[in-house]
Amino acid sequence: MNNFINKLQSHIEHVKRVGEHCSTEETTKQALILPLLDILGFNPYDPTKVLAEFAADFPGVKATERVDYALYCNGQPVMFIEAKPYNANLTNHAPQLSRYFNSSLGVTIGAITNGKEWRFFTDLINTNVMDEKPFLTVDFMKHKAEELVQLAEFKHDNFHVEKLRFFAEENQYIQQFKTVIKKSINEVDLDFVRYVAQQANIQRQLNTKFLETIQPFVKQAVEQAISDTVVKGLSSPTIITAQPIEPQPTKIEQPIIDHQPVDIIHPDNEKIVTTKDEQDLYRIVSELFPEAELTAKDTESYYSILFQNKNNRWLFRYDVNRKRPTIQFAVPIDDQRKLELFRAGLEVQTNGQVFLDKPEHIYRAVGILKDCLAHCSNDDNFKRVLNA
């Protein structure tokens, strides 16, 4: 990582030094964009990694329009890049990138750049439709290289589409939360005042008149709390790890309580063992659908998630008793769902079962889980068909 940061630092200085001389798109590509791709491990002179003027049969895209760069991993395009001149306003050009993005089922990451600013997009809101707002914006004029380690997520040897989607979702939430927190701190609106008063256990009726009375006190308290935190951070002693460490007397440590789930053996049948992975799977699905009435049932053959605790209304059956765990969904895996699973990096067997090597991989099939929940919630799907 240190080597990556050093290269990034040198590139930032290069951009600041020569950027103003890049008046055309082509100069910007050669002087600013391709060098960064090289730092990320996408050799611009290797067409198996970087393909310029990428053309494909995009529905709704003019035949003369081409993507400036398509980045490849393992022989497949994984990211589109739209390049603009150094002084271009990137906001005005995002729709052009979205046309390529929305028309290509195999690419879920897009970027637009003028060499000094990079905006990265994906499809968190609607599948195959590029989000209007980027999940990450990197501006070399405002950031230090040490703050830009997030770019390491886009390195060729670290590039994983599903991992980037998780990173994008996490980054989007953090940015939204930061905006709300900054606004609350700067403006100290009445909702924030009420929250602080409730947490402080103020023994008064928290009506609007009282909240307006204490609003300036809360604002002052926020300012002092931030100041105290900064001062405490600055006054904390610096630990110099290079100095030799003096041996310390041995002391007896209290046992650490491990709250991680452990395998559970059924009290009436020792052959039924609910594993940690099965417990994690139930926890994840419960968090994804907190409003749904879901229960778990374990048997000797498989582990099921049931809707309304009804045996015939299972969302999926998970089998961990094989060399590679598999999952069978309640809905059929048709061609469209196969494509969805393939794009998420999951393998589908000929019988429709899906390899699920880790419980957290279920996040990749959230859309199909929603279909399963809808199927189980529909009583019409479970009516008995009487013979005529």
Automatic annotation (TrEMBL):
Biological process terms from the Gene Ontology for this record are:
DNA restriction-modification system
Q: Tell me one GO molecular function of this protein.
A: type I site-specific deoxyribonuclease activity
Q: Which residues form the Restriction endonuclease type I HsdR N-terminal domain?
A: 61-124
InterPro entries attached here? Restrct_endonuc_type1_HsdR_N (IPR007409)
Pfam families this protein is in? HSDR_N (PF04313)
The protein's name is Restriction endonuclease type I HsdR N-terminal domain-containing protein
